Amino acid sequence: MPVNFNDTPSQDLGLFFKKGGLYGELLKLPKPKERYSYDWKDEHGKEYDTVSPTVYESLQYNIPCYLVANDVDDLQAKRTAILELISAPAGFDFYSNTLGRGFKLRYIDSPSFRTMNPIWSKGKLYCEFTLVFENNFDPTITQFALADEYNFIVTENDEQIIVEDYKQHF
Fold it and tell me: Residue 153: left if φ>0, alpha if ψ -120 to 50, beta else—which one?
């Protein structure tokens, strides 16, 4: 499941996602913000605004991850690189090749990084932790392969033609 932080592949950072955790979080549906309503005392139920568009609360993702390093120095370097990427004041771009779309996220917390329990296995250092991000639905890139009714449309070199669209996703 290839993903990028800005333009950096997560594997280059030694960052991997626990099975079922990443897409289970990224595909959650947003909760609508409460619509304006009025509860008339002399009528049943509530009267709701049925004209205004639906708007959503920001989504919070709790993504279970693990970090793979060669030794303690490599672990510290990768941890620092990840923190620098995700801590930008404007947030960061998170792109999933599997979903073919991006997410503009903001780093909120990583509670389990404070109690990191490294495990040595096959000459590597593995650490589990959770990254907590917020999605405010800023416009992001979506990519899709150009296709006709039956097949993908390809170039003369048999390469798929990828089209990008920049829009707000929910």
Answer: beta
pLDDT of res. 115: 45
CA 142, 104, 138, 109 torsion-angle sign: positive
Question: Are 64 and 130 in contact, with CB atoms under 8 Å apart?
Answer: yes
Question: Average of pLDDT values for 92-104?
Answer: 89
Task: At 91, give phi and psi (nearest 5°).
Answer: 90, -165
- 3-state SS record for 106-122: EEEECHHHHHCCCEEEC
CA–CA separation, 6 and 105 (whole Å) = 10
pLDDT of residue 41: 92
Cα separation, 169 vs 140, whole angstroms: 7
**Rounded-to-integer distance, Cα 138 and Cα 101, Å:** 13
